[in-house]
Amino acid sequence: MARNRRSNIADILAARSVIINDIDIEPHSCGELNVQCVSCEAKHFLGERPPDRQFTNCCHKGKVELPPIKMCPVIEDLMKNKHPPINCQRIFMKMLEA
Ligand SMILES: [Zn+2]
User: Fold this and answer.
1) Residue 43 has pLDDT above 90, yes or no
2) CA–centroid distance for 89 within its chain
3) How far, in Å, CA of 60 to CA of 58, rounded?
4) Ligand 1 centroid, distance to 42 Cα (angstroms)
5) Residue 20 has what pLDDT?
6) Which backbone phi and psi does 44 adopt, to 5 degrees?
7) pLDDT in tens, 10-34
8) Domain boundaries in the chain?
9) Percent of the chain scored above 70 by pLDDT?
10) Alpha-carbon gap, residue 61 to 27, rounded angstroms
11) Which one of 29, 47, 67, 95 is separated from 61 by 20 to 30 angstroms, measured CA to CA?
């Protein structure tokens, strides 16, 4: 048991001693998220596209049809920029004065 514990500690210390130089690590890019599923229009990376060009991880090649998303009308208006104009600076200044 004690030998096992010492061995584990030695392994941990050995693992900590590995120094990785960040400069030597090549950044990875998945590319643009701009390949759309022809069935559901979900966006995918090019590398995700199967050889038959039909995606399975969104709608299983059009076999799964999800109901439309129910969204709170206030949030939907905000997302679609359909809200009365507000003066953010004035609101911020009021918050500072409080
Ligand atoms: Zn799909």
Assistant:
1) yes
2) 31
3) 6
4) 6
5) 67
6) -135, 165
7) 887 777 766 667 777 788 899 999 9
8) 30-97
9) 92
10) 32
11) 29
